[in-house]
Amino acid sequence: MPSQETIPHPLLFGLRRSGLIASGERTLVAVSGGPDSTALLVALHEEGYAVVAAHYDHALQPGSGRAADHVRALCQRLGVEVLTERRESPMPRGSVQAGARALRYEYFERARAQIGASVVAIAHTADDVVEGVVLHLLRGSGLAGMRGMPARRGVFVRPLLSVWRSEVADYLDRRGIKAWQDPANSNPAYARVRVRRDILPALERDRPGIVRRFHRASIRATALHESISGIAESALNAGVLTRAVVAAAPEPVAAEMMRHLYARAGGAQPSLSRTHLAAMLRLAQAGPGGRGVDLPGGLRFRIVGETMQFVPPDAARRPAPRLEISACDGCGDMTAAHVRPDLELRLGYRTPGLTMRLLKGRGTRKLQDIFVDARVPREDRDSWPLVFAGDSLAVVPGIAVSAELATRAGEPSLHVTVSGIPAKVESLNSLPGEPS
Q: CA 51, CA 120: separation in Å to the nearest integer?
């Protein structure tokens, strides 16, 4: 039977078993100065990893700089390089905790790039997983909330997710290391603190072992969620994802497809709420679609025909449309409209009752129907610049030209282009083509 000396401490065992940090891999360790991050830094240093510590001072409490001093002193004793930064910009609007987290992670990413580290190690533990699960359940989460926090997200890794805080405390006690105690961790104004100090202890007293059962349930939910995520990823990689594919998928798979699409469009993770996902899935069902769904990060989800799109809300930033007119002998530029040279043209926007007789024998159509046929999203139609000759609709830029006003190829013409068209659409006729 092995001696006690040959059995690694549970914290070291959990760290090794995680397999998240490769031997020799330069690692940035996020160190608040508290017990968990202190133990992670010491353990990685003890195990021979190439580590650099990073501390971010949110400057939210008087004397917060003392935590940075504590971290610097610890790193000096260990012989570990340390980087620190204190917040000087205003806090983001909204939740203080969410804003602090965003600033902290932004700093860790900058610090990682500065030192050329492969990963950033975060010291979340099994207790953090359980607290997160309970918080999500209290808010009415689905399966994604039950899985807790991922062991890896991009360059951020969490190698202590199987280690309990009691094991962290024992590890530090055995080494005679005192950690910094953040007053915020005992402030009942925060929901996580109330879960930690009140809800979980009460549940454990009534049902001994329930905290570890929560943890095991989270592990199973993680495995199930990863399976669903793999199915969604395979569907995305198989080709263009259409409305019909999403509508036909089981709801958990369809929701995961939406998360993957959002991430590919540049959306930060995690950001989408159950309300966001439900609205996106409703839009994907058969029917007219709707005007779109606004999402975190300034993205908007919409469906044009069968194609799903994530677009930035750039209407306010889009340059004002500009009408450019020049004399022409009826050139073959397919991006321009060619109309009679005697016309006086102006820019305008849609009003009720507008119609146009299209080229290629399509007859007279309502502007609304022209937009639908060209798959112009509803939200873009009012801002689509139009070219008028007097009160007559002459050109719908990028889409159609009036058969009555168009010229034949090779005839003297006005060469007409308009900048600032909101989106790429389907042309309904060849702009310089023959009138019917």
A: 10
Separation between Cα atoms, residue 237 and residue 320, nearest integer Å: 37
Query: How is residue 331 written in tokens?
Result: 């050139």
Q: Confirm whether 401 is domain-assigned.
A: yes
Kindly report the number of other CB atoms within 10 A of residue 5's CB atom.
6
**How many helices (H) does the chain have, and how many strands (E)?**
15, 18
pLDDT classification of 114: cutoffs 50, 70, 90: very high
- pLDDT tens-digit map of 81-105: 999 999 988 888 777 888 888 899 9
Highest mean pLDDT among 25-29, 232-236, 331-335: 25-29
Nearest Cα to Cα of residue 52 among 15, 24, 80: 80
SS3 (DSSP) at 206: helix
Residues 353 and 262 reside in one and the same domain: no
Q: How far apart are CA 35 and CA 40, in angstroms?
A: 9
Q: What gap in Å lies between CA 195 and CA 145, rounded to an integer?
A: 16
Which residue segment(s) compose the domain that 359 sits in?
A: 322-419
Residues 346 and 297 in one domain: no
Which 3 state secondary structure label does DSSP give 323?
Answer: strand
Q: Which of 278, 311, 344 is the last residue of a domain?
A: 311
Torsion over CA: 146, 152, 158, 160 (sign): positive
Rounded distance between C-alpha atoms, residue 197 and residue 185, angstroms: 10
> 379 and 285, same structural domain?
no
How many domains is the chain partitioned into structurally? 3
- DSSP secondary structure letters along 93-108: SS-HHHHHHHHHHHHH
182 with 52, same domain: the answer is: yes
H helix or E strand, kind and range, residue 51:
strand 51-57
Q: Are residues 78 and 196 in the same domain?
A: yes
